[in-house]
Amino acid sequence: MENITTGHWIFAAIFMVAFVSFLVWSYRKDSAMHKLYYGKGARVLLVVVVLIFVLFIVKQLLFHN
Question: What pLDDT does 36 receive?
Fold first, then answer.
């Protein structure tokens, strides 16, 4: 850490701003396609969470000492 100069911090800040800006631009550009192909992703996530919860409850009921 003692060899990190002000130039390194400036480069890191510029890189971070550019990278986040590119991510935001890319997401906005592809958002219509994401809605078309991945519109039901929230439902799948909900089903997975419910299944994990049900498995946890069954485990607690069957293996409770």
Answer: 80
